[in-house]
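I hope you will forgive my troubling you with a question about protein structure. Could you please explain, in whatever detail you think fit, how the structure tokens follow from the sequence? Thank you for your consideration; the sequence and its tokens are set out here.
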Amino acid sequence: IHTVREHLTDSRLPENRFIYAQIPLTIGNRDSTAELFVYKNPKSSVSKLDPDNAKILLALDLERLGHVETLISVRGKELSLGFCSERAETADLIRRDSIELYEVMSSVGYKLTGTTSEVEPRSTPENAMLRLLLAANEPTLGLDIAV
């Protein structure tokens, strides 16, 4: 967490808008760590997270698929999933099997409104948080010049 806070300070991203956690996992016979970034809506009057209106980025290192990041957007019982992987074959596999995702989400009471699968390099903590801000339609740091 200290390293992430340093990144937040250096990049001037608003620290209070994100929850970051590293989650130890065992997948198959391999120990791994998932990185979880959760966006907290600053406009919400509720201090706790709203499970019916959430933006989450989950990053996993998987033995067969490589590094995969999933942006999960939840609104009520509807959700969308955006996958980014370092390998083209992983992105293709996710695209081919996306019909199964619709069926699985439906079986647990959610409507999957869309999936995307792209090939991109691994995110830094700053990039992960910027992706969450963009998914939440929040303005990001930038410079706007008009002449």
Helices lie at 2-11, 88-96, 98-107, 125-135. The radius of gyration is 16 Å. Confidence is low (pLDDT under 50) at residues 1-13, 140-147.
